[in-house]
Design goal:
Strand content of chain B: 15-25%
Order of helices and strands of chain B: HHEHEHEEEHEHEEEEEEEHH
Number of strands of chain B: 13
Largest sheet of chain B: 9 strands, mixed
Shape of chain A: globular
Structural class of chain B: alpha/beta
Helix content of chain A: 25-40%
Largest interface: A-B, 60 and 59 residues
Strand order of the largest sheet of chain B: 2-1-3-6-13-12-11-8-9
Structural class of chain A: alpha/beta
Oligomer: heterodimer
Distance between the termini of chain A: 33 Å
Radius of gyration of chain A: 18 Å
Helix content of chain B: 25-40%
Radius of gyration of chain B: 20 Å
Strand content of chain A: 15-25%
Largest sheet of chain A: 9 strands, mixed
Order of helices and strands of chain A: HHEHEHEEEHEHEEEEEEEHH
Number of helices of chain B: 8
Chain lengths: 291, 307
């Protein structure tokens, strides 16, 4: 994610929501993927089932799947992975018990260089200044946000990971259920993640751990008592005017359902740090009301 | 279009009229509602072809691929389902489609790797860079050294290769793009239907793509064009008369002992179905080069027997 920490005005939010709705209209949208029959499977086995919307321009779905596979395999929970953001709907969420998102809120539908756009392939071009990014298009419509809200209200779980907090910039309904919004991050560098004083089954007994990741700074809208993790640059490096510390996770009940957000997630390394892997597993179990 | 040198044939014109009519229909149904499943179903029932696109791997983020393809399928008015779930490709799944596109290599890295930026400044210039080599679990730690964890694993099973072969034999169209030639290295049936296999490629650098002397509706009137892309070198197993594109580094830069030229694309009938391979595809830039965009569209139409 390459966004700066600009706060959006209400007017900008409304305008962007309009853009999102337009993008939905132009989409190739057929609601139900032909290759996924979650209802049949869930009905047949009674096993909990997760829909995971993963991947964006800056977060290749491949590394995310590799990371999450380990979580789901060890929990013996079935998962369908999708990159089809435009097919997320009330209908497509039916049959799932958890909706997981690790995806930012933007698309670059006007194109960009390619998979290596963050690498040396696109650096040092003679005309680098001319080859700027095209405009971004937010993808989540308010209808989609409402569908997720209703899904959680009805008793299911939302697991918002990493850059999914960016979606809150342009979707009010998503922000309300997710509980906060992305506010920028420094480059990959080591920082510490520690449980807060708030007791919770997800963080019970978890010791502080170091990761080399993007330290995401987020704005959090709900009660401070639901904050489970905080991150701190222990070398004293600050980010913009936001200091060395950031809120790194929360968990709360929402209607009849539950919501968890954890901010770490830019690398396999961070996703598989033993404590963070355990946190992801417990988050899944807590969302399923197993703990 | 400027790059189409010859006048359009009567058949092509008739075909274009059909596509235009289809686009009109989509516009109407799109106005009915944001997610009108009824109209989508009606289109399917009306016999409209549907495409399945398996895209993305460690080195090819599905986001740029979808961004690129969306333009092809939107212009052609063909609905497409994008999937990254390589393990769910099966005979059962393919039944729902008339066109199958793959832009994905043959390997997965279940042992983990650094992350999405593994080719970027995030993983370059590390003090211990040699220790963080890709494909070995890298800094990811997790499965390092344990029972073969780390390195790559080829994902396509014999059953999946046979399913694709049978599906094409039965009359459908398979569009193999870019690094999907890599899958052939580990799957005989896939290799047979796809027609060749990946050797390797130099870094991104400019080269020329041009039509061969073999006449074909996909390349008719297409003038040579320059791209900055990975010039893929591939082996090809079928009759040379089906080769429709070749690529050449016109600066004379060679790759290994393979010279400056590579086979850049082919198209043939296979059973009752059809197969196309085109090698370019590492960037939005090349996928949207006007001639290559036209080649992709015509490839889709040819695979669907519309031209």
């Amino acid at each position: 994610m390459k966004r700066s920490a600009a706060k959006l005005s209400r007017r900008a939010l409304v305008r962007n929501a309009g853009l999102a709705a337009s993008a939905g209209l132009l989409g190739l949208g057929q609601e139900k993927s032909l290759y996924s029959q979650p209802q049949a499977t869930a009905g047949a086995t009674g096993q909990p089932r997760v829909l995971a919307l993963i991947g964006d321009r800056h977060h290749n779905a491949d590394y995310i799947r590799v990371s999450l596979d380990k979580v789901f395999k060890e929990l013996n929970v079935s998962v369908d992975y999708t990159i089809e953001y435009d097919k997320i709907s009330a209908n497509s969420l039916k049959g799932y018990n958890i909706f997981l998102v690790l995806r930012e809120g933007q698309n670059w539908s006007g194109g960009y260089l390619g998979p290596d756009a963050a690498s040396f392939y696109s650096k040092n071009l003679e005309n680098a200044a001319d080859f700027h990014d095209g405009p971004t298009v937010p993808w989540m419509s308010e209808e989609q946000g409402a569908a997720i809200k209703d899904f959680v209200n009805a008793g299911n779980g939302l697991y918002a990971l990493h850059d999914s907090s960016d979606i809150s910039h342009t979707c009010k309904n998503f922000r309300d259920v997710m509980g906060g919004v992305f506010n920028g991050h420094p480059a990959l560098r080591p920082f510490r993640v520690s449980p807060t004083a708030n007791k919770h089954p997800i963080t019970d007994g978890i010791t502080p751990f170091m990761v080399n990741d993007e330290q995401h700074y987020v704005i959090y809208d709900k009660d401070p008592k639901y904050v489970l993790l905080e991150a701190e640059n222990t070398d004293g490096l600050t980010f913009q005017t936001l200091g060395t510390k950031s809120i790194s996770a929360w968990a709360y009940d929402y209607g009849k359902g539950r919501v968890v957000f954890t901010a770490v997630g830019h690398t396999n390394h961070a996703m598989w740090v033993p404590q963070y892997l355990e946190i992801q597993k417990r988050s899944m179990q807590w969302l399923l009301k197993q703990i | 279009m400027e790059f189409v040198g010859k006048k359009l044939s009567r058949r092509t014109l008739v075909q274009k009229a059909g596509v235009a009519a289809g686009a009109g229909l989509l516009g109407l149904s799109g106005a009915e509602g944001l997610f009108s499943q009824a109209s989508a179903s009606a289109q399917t029932m009306a016999g409209q072809p549907r495409a399945l696109a398996l895209i993305g791997d460690r080195f090819h983020n599905p986001d740029y691929i979808r961004t690129s393809f969306a333009r092809v399928f939107k212009d052609l008015n063909i609905p497409v389902d994008y999937t990254i779930e390589y393990d769910k490709i099966s005979a059962d799944l393919l039944k729902n489609y008339q066109l199958f596109v793959i832009l994905r290599d043959g390997q997965i890295f279940p042992g983990g790797y650094l992350g999405p930026d593994s080719w970027s400044e995030y993983s370059a210039n590390l003090e211990n860079a040699p220790d963080a080599a890709g494909g070995r679990g890298g800094a990811g730690g997790g499965a390092r050294g344990g029972g073969g964890g780390g390195g790559s694993v080829m994902w396509m099973t014999a059953e999946q290769g046979a399913a694709i072969k049978d599906w094409v034999n039965a009359g459908n169209g398979f569009y193999s793009m870019h690094n999907s030639s890599h899958i052939s290295l580990s799957n005989k049936d896939y290799h047979d239907v796809m027609g060749g296999a990946f050797i390797s490629h130099p870094p991104l650098r400019p080269f020329q793509i041009r039509a061969t002397a073999n006449k074909h509706p996909i390349t008719e009137g297409i003038t040579p064009f320059m791209v900055n892309d990975e010039q893929h070198y591939v082996t090809y197993d079928k009759d040379p008369k089906y080769v429709i594109l070749e690529s050449e580094n016109i600066d004379g830069l060679t790759f290994r002992d393979l010279g400056t030229k590579a086979i850049g694309g082919w198209a043939y009938d296979y059973g009752k179905g059809r197969v196309v391979f085109t090698a370019a595809g590492h960037t939005n830039h090349v996928l949207w080069a006007p001639q290559y965009l036209e080649i992709q569209k015509r490839s889709v139409k040819w695979l669907l027997k519309q031209i």
